[in-house]
Amino acid sequence: MSEAVDTHQLGEDIVKVLKTIYDPEIPVDIYELGLIYDVFVNEDNDVKILMTLTSPNCPVAESLPVEIEEKVKSLDLVKGAEVEITFDPPWTQELMSEEAKLELGLL
User: Fold this and answer.
1) How far is 22 from 78, CA to CA, in rounded Å?
2) Which stretches make up the MIP18 family-like domain (predicted)?
């Protein structure tokens, strides 16, 4: 049972890290922006993050996944991290949190 609790806690810690990473063109973190579709943590504490970008031509398409992997790997309990980019479904403003919409004046 403690394994499941640890995995859940690690998932929450990963989300905290994701909330420190900002899109360079939009002053909102990537989590609230809705770019993170899922975070998977297995029993070996390997992490896989499924995410998208605001557009396929995003200028940080090369650097952002690397930054995410490095910051997530910096957590003591994380053994490895991998970021997978998908455009299915494509990102839309509907994926943003209420907080992000408020920050950008969309509410």
Assistant:
1) 21
2) 12-84
Residue 41 falls in which region: left (phi positive, over 0), alpha (psi -120 to 50) or beta: beta
User: Model's pTM, two decimal places?
Assistant: 0.89
- Which regions of the chain does DSSP assign to beta strands (E)? 36-41, 46-51, 80-85
Those residues of the chain that have pLDDT short of 50 are: 1-5
Tokens 């992490």 identify what position?
A: 47
**pLDDT tens digit sequence for 47-56:** 999 999 998 8
The two tokens of residue 28 are 């909102």
Domains of the chain, CATH where assigned: 2-91 (3.30.300.130)
